[in-house]
Amino acid sequence: MNINEKLQHDDEAEMTDARRFRSLVGGLIYLTHTRLDIAFPVGIISKFMQHPSKVHYGAAKRVLHYIAGTMEYGIWYSKSSNFKLYGFTDSDWAGSLDDRRSISANVFTLGSGAITWSSKKQAIVALSTSEAEYAAATSAVCQAIWL
User: PANTHER family, alphabetically (predicted)?
Assistant: First the structure.
């Protein structure tokens, strides 16, 4: 997606073919199982499945262009003597313009490759960046304990 592009439901743009948009987004969701680098933009785009506009369709096509240019990317698991669990987390404070909720994201690696990742909207409306970061960290710690 474009940097700092914020998509919203009521963007006053012309509507596009919803069936074609849902088919495209469904394929992108399928790709997120092996391409964690597109999990965040696909999550954002998938919020507009009911009433997609041309702006939303353009954002989905940009993800396809990115995939076409990075076909050789993927997760590579190799033999590693450094078999430690590492986790990374971040949040996007008030990233949704429609309801002002934040988005939490995390990724965990074990050895040489990512084993689990997540990007989802927080259940609370954070009043500050610190609160959004604490909510994201709490979610990541729960995942780390489970792992």
Answer: GAG-POL-RELATED RETROTRANSPOSON, REVERSE TRANSCRIPTASE TY1_COPIA-TYPE DOMAIN-CONTAINING PROTEIN
Return the domain boundaries, the chain.
18-69, 85-146
Mean pLDDT, rounded, of the chain: 88
Amino acid in position 22: R
DSSP output for the chain: --TT----S---PPB--HHHHHHHHHHHHHHTTT-GGGHHHHHHHGGGSSS-BHHHHHHHHHHHHHHHHTTT--------S---EEEEEEEETT--TTT---EEEEEEEETTEEEEEEEEE-SS--SSHHHHHHHHHHHHHHHHHH-
Kindly report the pTM of this predicted structure. 0.73
Q: What is the token pair recorded at 67?
A: 């995939």
12 has pLDDT over 80: no
Residue 119: pLDDT over 90: no
Please identify which residue in the block is written with the tokens 């009043």. Answer: 127
- Tell me if 38 sits within 8 A of 32, measured CB to CB: yes
